[in-house]
């Protein structure tokens, strides 16, 4: 945390190629810090840090408004079209050591709401996160379901979507204590919509007692 008038949360974006990971980071920051566009190959090859301005109207403490600052580390996707698993993990560890020396509040696993989560893909992703974050990864991970507009266009409310979701996705959500957010990152969201999402993220962090996950530093 910063001074008594600010709260800073450190977030890590993880996900497969073309899930809308970088676009989601831009939505949360309210900026265009991260490169994001349609591509037949993985766009992000290096980690990059984005910082929000001081955000007001999100949290109050002892009757006084506290400003929120968000720091987001965008990462190369895994699987990656040109980097090995080991190369991606090394790059993420290096960036975490450089930018989040004090630790990580929450990793956001970005999945597409309009693409079924298959067991093999899930197993591969979970193994990657476990190796990266360690045995307590579930306490420090939330799921960000992007392209929620596609689910809405198909007639699914959030409740109906979860009622018909695959057992693989439901098991994943259960393992991370149902920390999930639906996000339509294909259009500009309003200030109020962004504030609602940030409140949910802050609530996840608060329920974890603002704990920071300290990760092993990687040289190089």
From TrEMBL:
Q: Show the InterPro entries listed in the entry.
A: G_AIG1 (IPR006703), GIMA/IAN/Toc (IPR045058), P-loop_NTPase (IPR027417)
Decide whether keyword Thylakoid is in the record.
no
GO MF terms here are: GTP binding
- Which keywords appear in this protein's UniProt record, sorted alphabetically? GTP-binding, Nucleotide-binding
Q: Name one Pfam family in it.
A: AIG1
Domain named AIG1-type G is located at: 6-220
PANTHER family from the UniProt entry: GTPASE IMAP FAMILY MEMBER GIMD1, GTPASE, IMAP FAMILY MEMBER-RELATED
What is the name attached to this protein's record?
Answer: GTPase IMAP family member GIMD1
Biological source species: Eudromia elegans (Elegant crested-tinamou)
């Amino acid at each position: 945390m910063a001074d008594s008038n600010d709260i800073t949360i450190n977030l890590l974006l993880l996900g497969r190629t073309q899930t809308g990971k970088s676009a989601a980071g831009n939505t949360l920051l309210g900026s265009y810090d991260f490169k994001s566009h349609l591509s037949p190959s993985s766009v992000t090859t290096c980690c990059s840090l984005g910082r929000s301005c001081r955000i007001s109207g999100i949290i109050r403490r002892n009757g006084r408004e506290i400003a929120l600052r968000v720091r987001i580390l965008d990462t190369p996707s895994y699987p990656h079209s040109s980097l090995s698993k080991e190369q991606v993990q090394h790059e993420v560890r290096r960036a975490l050591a450089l930018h989040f020396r004090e630790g990580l509040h929450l990793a956001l696993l970005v999945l597409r709401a309009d693409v079924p989560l298959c067991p093999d893909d899930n197993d591969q992703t979970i193994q990657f996160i476990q190796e990266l974050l360690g045995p307590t990864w579930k306490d420090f991970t939330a799921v960000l379901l992007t392209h929620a507009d596609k689910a809405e266009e198909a007639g699914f409310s959030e409740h109906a979507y979860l009622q018909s979701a695959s057992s693989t996705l439901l098991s994943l959500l259960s393992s991370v204590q149902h920390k999930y957010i639906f996000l339509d990152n294909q259009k500009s969201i309003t200030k109020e919509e962004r504030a609602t999402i940030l409140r949910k993220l802050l609530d996840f962090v608060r329920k974890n007692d603002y704990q920071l996950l300290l990760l092993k530093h990687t040289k190089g």
